[in-house]
Design goal:
single chain; about 375 residues; alpha+beta; Immunoglobulin-like; four-stranded antiparallel sheet; about 30% strand
Amino acid sequence: MAAGTGNSNREGMMISRRELLKAAAALSAMAGLPKIAFANMAFAPRPSTWRTFEITTRVELLRADSAARAWIPLPVLRAGDWNRPGDITWTTNAASARIVRDDAGKDQMLLVEWKGGEPAPVVEMVSRVATRERAVDLSKPEKAEPLSPAERTRYLAGSRLVPIDGIIKETSDRIVGTATGEMDKAKLIYDWVVANTYRKAATRGCGSGDIVSMLKSGDLGGKCADINPLYVGLARAAGLPARDVYGLRVAPSKFGYQSLGTKTEIVTKTQHCRAEVYLSEFGWVPVDPADVRKVMLEETEGGLGTADPRVVAARQTLFGAWEDNWIAYNDRRDVALPGSTGPEIAFLMYPQAEIMSARLDCLDPDAFKYAIRSREITA
């Protein structure tokens, strides 16, 4: 299937079924085989050494004749085996700047406030975070650390844009069918999302995350903040705790994927949402169906088919593993910006700003200028 096709819902679904059957056959044939190699390296992340990155985020408001605010996401998600937040510092000409919490009581963002009349409002924040590769051996069940009752409730609950009833529940039930095992459900949903979605190049930013609209329209095109939340919603509706994780690509891929890494130290537009599903025998398992579709659309000009070795390798690997060239900000949805009277945002992955309570478009550089730079600390 050529990425981005499928104007007819019926035609798109027929193509998707063919993709699913082909992919299932390919995966069956690969069972027990080593990771597929290309570009002289197998796509096989393995937890080993930690890498530390320094992320510099500079925000400038191009006009601020009235009082203004900015909210900058912080890399605060702490996962001891793959993401460790470090020091955070900032400089600004604002009247105040402080780390604040969201309505769930989690340290989440830097809130910067300027008084009216500041001719050139600016803030520069520097944060450090350590990360390493993840790879869960799904052939060897282990006794995982259980979720607390509060965590289980949270990661099974629906949200405004990712509910777990209605068309989400109906779709999830059709996908899992009679399957009862956690692993079977998780994998069936992953394969369905990979086969039936596509990366839509015209989608702004990382997408809106409105998975109900996707399913109701029959157009399952979008980007990472659409496709991976779709996985999360379907998994939760099937009784599997799951979560979106919002973050930033900070380095090139060392496995040869041009589409799955950065090209320069400027990472202003490399935001990426990933997903995790909790399986009682393995704990949190990384999944990223959106990146499989990204490889299909963007790895080479003209796209790649499902049988291409690079796609097969990505599909196989990104259920259970991911590379260490990405850092996590948070796993929050429906975020209320402290001090704002405006609406909640679907997720906090981009800097946000308001002038006189008027929300600026975080994807519009003419009204809201920011730049993000990544540097690996090797000493």
